[in-house]
Amino acid sequence: MNSPASVRLGPRAVGDGQPCYVIAEAGANHNRDLDTAFALIDAAVAAGADAVKFQTYSGKDLYSTKAPRFDYLGDLADVAPHELLEDLALPREWQPVLAERCRELGIEFLSSPFDLRAVAELDALDVAAFKVASFELVDLPLIEAIGRRRRPVILSTGMATLGEIEEALDAARRGGAHELCLLQCASVYPAPPHIMNLRAIPAMKAAFGVPVGLSDHTLGTHIAPAAVALGANLVEKHFTLDRTQSGPDHPFAVEPEELTAMIDAIRAVEAALGDGVKHGPSDEEAAEMYTKARRSVVATRAIPRGTRLTRDMLTVKRPGHGIKPRYIDALVGRTASVDIDADDIITWDML
């Protein structure tokens, strides 16, 4: 089994033994409004995310004009994909402005590049990593070009076979990238929990020897902490300022308070995982519960000094600072050295 190597995303090491790296996916939820984009960055910072991610594309370059419509888009299903994406596209002149805002607030600026121009633009902004979307995983020339920038690469793997993942990793390495991460993903919006296959996270770690995380398109916030419990090194989650807004990514995204709750839950899960060694009572348990709430041997009746103990004189009750219940039969036949009252907790110095 390969041991996943850690990678460095900006100042943060990402891998086993490190806190989960959380990417707040703003995507197209800026609605082409710069103030909204700024507010999304602010919300990601307030929630405790490590990075906020946008997407850099051109609708006419991303989709053929002959591409079929997407039924899942509901009211937007009648709009041609290339037109819809063109209307949603992040104005590229915003990128340095958004990157500067992120630097000022101490959060990483990321954006998924969907063309070679975007790769060059983001490289010029000194991004901490390139994120490749699931649909682009089979665009090996694009991935190899990204690899030539010698930055960490995060690859989403929705719909991908192990062979396709291996090809994508090889393409990035051919380009020269050596710090690579994978994200388990289900490319449905929203994704039902039964297709998430979180157990693929440790399986991909073993298969490819790189950090693996989750790109989560499910509703709610409960799946991501479960992924962390299974060893996810990264989590990416779409978020929005208001889920009722019009747009393809708003309906399944979490709102700012939910993003905060999800990250808090991730940190709680990390704290709860421990080191895997059964240590016995923690300091917190030993402070009170270990003695006051465990059980020990207790007298069922008054036992005068000099009385030989019989089994019916003894029972087991809480608290636990007397003789342990495991020794109850060994007490039979011993002599009380002091007067013992009914319900007294019996200790060795009483015998």
Give your account of this protein's structure.
The chain is elongated, with a radius of gyration of 29 Å. 37% of the residues are buried. The protein has 13 helices and twelve strands. It has two domains: 7-273, Aldolase class I (TIM Barrel, Alpha-Beta Barrel); 283-350, Type Iii Antifreeze Protein Isoform Hplc 12 (Alpha-Beta Complex), CATH 3.90.1210. Helix 1 (34-47) packs parallel to helix 4 (95-105), helix 1 packs parallel to helix 10 (256-273) and helix 6 runs parallel beside helix 7. The protein has helices at 34-47, 59-62, 81-88, 95-105, 116-124, 140-147, 162-175, 200-208, 223-229, 256-273, 283-286, 289-292, 328-331; strands at 7-9, 12-14, 21-27, 51-56, 108-113, 130-132, 153-156, 180-185, 212-216, 234-238, 296-299, 314-317. The protein is of the alpha/beta class and 351 residues long. The model has no long low-confidence stretch (mean pLDDT 93). Helix 1 links the parallel strand 3 (21-27) and strand 4. The strands form three sheets. The chain has an eight-stranded parallel sheet.
From the N-terminal CA to the C-terminal CA, the straight-line distance is 58 Å
The major pleated sheet works out as: 8 strands, parallel
The CATH architecture assignment of the largest domain turns out to be: Alpha-Beta Barrel
Number of domains: 2
Radius of gyration over C-alpha positions, nearest whole angstrom: 29 Å
The number of strands is 12
> For this entry, what is the oligomeric state of its chains?
single chain
Instruction: State the shape.
Output: elongated
Helices, by number, come to 13
Give the CATH class of the largest domain: Alpha Beta
Helix fraction, binned, reads: 25-40%
Strand content: 15-25%
Structural class: alpha/beta
Report low-confidence residues grouped into runs of 5 or more: none
Q: What is the CATH topology assignment of the largest domain?
A: TIM Barrel
Major sheet: arrangement of strands? 5-4-3-10-9-8-7-6
What would you give as the CATH superfamily of the largest domain? Answer: Aldolase class I
Mean pLDDT over the full residue set: 93
